[in-house]
Amino acid sequence: MLRNRRLEIIAGVTVLAFIGLFLATTMVMPTAEFAGSDTVASGMISEMTGTPEENFQPLIPQWAPPSGEIESMLFALQAAVGGIVLGYVFGSWRAERRNRDVAPSGTNPDVNV
User: Fold this and answer.
1) Boundaries of every domain in the chain
2) CB of 45 within 8 A of CB of 31?
3) Are 65 and 71 in contact (CB under 8 A)?
4) CA distance 12 to 6
5) Contact 53, 46 (CB under 8 A)
6) 2 in Cβ contact with 9 (< 8 Å)
7) Against a cut of 0.90, is the pTM above it?
8) Cβ neighbours of 75 (radius 10 Å)
9) Does position 113 have pLDDT exceeding 70, yes or no?
10) How far is CA 67 from the centre of its chain?
11) How confident is residue 56, by pLDDT bands cut at 50, 70 and 90?
């Protein structure tokens, strides 16, 4: 049974490890602010160059959504498309594995005889 559920067990242990790491970090530093890497990197670059963050311009002008709702919708759409792609890949792998295990050796499961 453990052999058949190996991937699920690994995923579960990984999720529990991340939860434990998050809880341990919040217990050790309850007042810490967790900033994103973009914010930290921008602050360090502005410190090193002496140029305020507001003066930085992106190389490629970026489109900004007109409202927060549209930005949230685009993020959710991106997550949904990613989930569909991952589901398709894992489903294909599972079907391929199932077909390989079911087909007798020396025969082609795609050919109806």
Assistant:
1) 1-56, 65-104
2) no
3) yes
4) 10
5) yes
6) yes
7) no
8) 11
9) no
10) 25
11) low
For 112, the 3-state DSSP assignment is coil
Residue pair 107/99 in contact (Cβ under 8 Å)? The answer is no
Is the pLDDT at 52 greater than 80, yes or no? no
Structure tokens at 2: 């453990």
Q: What Å distances lie between residue 74 and 64, 100, 113, CA to CA?
A: 11, 39, 49
Distance between CA 46 and CA 30 in Å, rounded?
28
**N- to C-terminal Cα separation, the chain:** 34
Contact call for residues 82 and 90 (beta carbons, < 8 A): no
Closest CA to 54 of 63, 43, 62, 66: 43
Question: For the chain, give me the number of helices (H) and strands (E)?
Answer: 3, 0
Q: What would the DSSP string read from start to end of 29-82?
A: -TT-----HHHHHHHHHHHHH---GGG---SS-----SSHHHHHHHHHHHHHHH
